[in-house]
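Input set for joint prediction.
Command: fold jointly, output tokens.
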Amino acid sequence: MATIKSSKGSEAQIVSVGTFRPARLVPNSEIVDRIDSSDEWIQQRTGIESRRFAGPHESVIDMAQAASEMALKRAKLTIADIDTVIVATITFPYQAPSAATALIERLGNPKAAAFDVGAACAGFCYGLGMANDLIRGGTSKNILVVGVEKISDFTDPDDRATAFIFADGAGAVVVSAADHVGIGPTIWGSDAANRDAILMEPAWTDYKKTPQSTIEQLKWPNIEQQGQTVFRWAVFEMSKAALRTLEAAGVTVDQLGAFIPHQANYRIIEAMARQMEIPDSVVIADDIKTNGNTSAASIPLAMDALLEKHPELHGSLALLIGYGAGLVYAGQVVQLPPAPK
Amino acid sequence: MALSQADVLAGLKEIVEEVAGIPAASIELDKNFTDDLEVDSLSMVEVVVAAEERFGIKIPDEKVTDLATVGDAVNFIVNAAK
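tokens >
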């Protein structure tokens, strides 16, 4: 029998990050009347002061394109250099083909390998983990990992549990082959017993079963969330997963420059930091305060905001952890990208 | 392991003080978590999980809303630990 040739790659690193934030900044005052709430209540429970909503003519692909072009420019690469594109999203409003194929066509490299990741708010870290392993396995050399959401299309402005949390935006990183370990092992998993803690229902087929129904009769698949269940899981289980991620990378918490968890709720972030005993020397990402929870886009958006505010952190170590509907999670220790030249 | 009401109250005072920053001296059995101590629903989740770990019991999510006062929580924990 002939032997099968194997491929072997190299280590990988994040070489750049790019973002797109919709122009429309929506303060709490625009949200509160429909949910009988207040600016103070929202800030106290989530830390959120404002969020951004995309306009009617800004699509998931428009936002992903803008973030990707910024990341490519900062990496001094063109789309022709990219062999693989991974898009994490739960709000691309087509069953098929994927958002990733729409993006490569738009960016001008329609031959690249392209696929979407459906891991909700953990999607970016799922994609980053796969990108790292694709390069280490020798399948890919330069990968674009994009997190993008237009959750305003799937949020009920009258839902007191979600209307003030979610937001729109896109973040992208270029992951390239490297001569050192720039991305540590991925620690990931699920807690599918809590599958109904975050939902987007009904199924599309429910519309087909009752063709006489209008959208008013059948609800739109807006995001729904059991806040306290998610809070409990996020704070206590995710802090343990984050510590396992550090251990797998052989990095201690005091060696980190930054902690960039999914921007779900600032109260979760604070409670995780307390559980993990993160020292004051570590900068904790807080992009949620002004830009809301952008699901799969939140980690690259928060990374870019943090590097803009703390340029000395370029090249330092950061702990990333994404978690969300599923429930699913994934985390890595990464070296933050160098300052763009 | 059976726990006394006094032991549980003392432990709970420490937890509430640490999680919500409320002085232990002001935490008494008849105090309402929300109205008197201003412990909101998210801080309550942290209190509950810390109490589970400390007293080796389980407090299901659907029970948490029944624990209106410090006394309710103490009684629940004492009974759950029997």
